[in-house]
Structure formats: structure tokens, C-alpha cells
Amino acid sequence: WRVQSKNDSLDQLSFNEYDYLKVIQVSQDAIRLTDLANEMQVSKPSATNMVKRLERKGLVERKSCAEDARSKRVELTEKATVALKEESRVYGVMARELEKKLTDDQLDQLNQLLKIALK
Predict the structure, then answer these.
(1) What is the crossing angle of helices 33-40 and 44-56, to 10°?
(2) What is the pLDDT of residues 44-56, one digit of tens each?
(3) Which residues form the HTH marR-type domain (predicted)?
């Protein structure tokens, strides 16, 4: 789906890492680690390990929560924000190209297959 590039921050991500970034991206503000774990349907230690991995890649940062000093909030770095916006733009271009080349029935079929594959 994407042109492979050594400069692409998202190029070396697992699907799971990418899913975490998308959940963080759609949250209004920095998301609490507990809420991130709940959203991803994993334990808090599992979410913590993933956040540490994404931090090492420079894609997220953890910050102390103003309301509760024991709690941490996670937000995307500028690097991740820029990469996700570019990824979205590329997917949009590809989706429009598919719409031009496939019939409505073929698009429906593709949509159904993608839903099955992403379960």
C-alpha cells in the first residue's frame, strides 16, 4: 500500500503498533494509559510495554497527568503526526484510484474481503 522509504516513520511498524498510533490519534487530547489499554482491549502492563516501544521509535511521548500525578497520558509526537497525515493522504489517493477502476459490485466485494481480513 505504501511506497517503501527509509524515511517513512511508519514503514517499520507492526499492525499492532500502527493500531495504537491510530487510537492515540483519534483521542481528543493526550489519552490516559488506562484508557488506551481499555480501547486496545489489553492489560495496562501490555499497553505500557507498547508505549515504551513507540517512545523508543520517537512516535509517542508520555506526560504526567495534571489531575492525577500517578497517571500518565500518551500523545503523538510531531514525527508521528506528520507521518500519519501523509499515510492518510496516500491511502486517500489510492482509494480514489480504486473507485475509478472498479465497479460498484467489485468495490463492495473488496470492502467485504477487507472487513474479513481485518477481523
Answers:
(1) 110
(2) 999 999 999 999 9
(3) 1-119
d(CA 51, CA 67): 21
Q: Is the pLDDT of residue 7 over 70?
A: no
Q: Phi and psi at residue 29, in whole multiples of 5°? A: -120, -170
Domains of the chain: 15-90 (1.10.10.10)
Sheet containing strand 31-32, edge to edge, reads 31-32, 72-76, 60-64
Q: How far apart are CA 89 and CA 30, in angstroms?
A: 23
What dihedral angle (degrees, nearest 10) is formed by the CA atoms of 61, 66, 68, 70? 40
Name the 3-class secondary structure at 17. helix
Question: What dihedral angle (degrees, nearest 10) is formed by the CA atoms of 34, 35, 37, 41?
Answer: 140
Per-residue cell: 62 = 508520555
How many angstroms separate the CA atoms of 97 and 81, rounded? 25
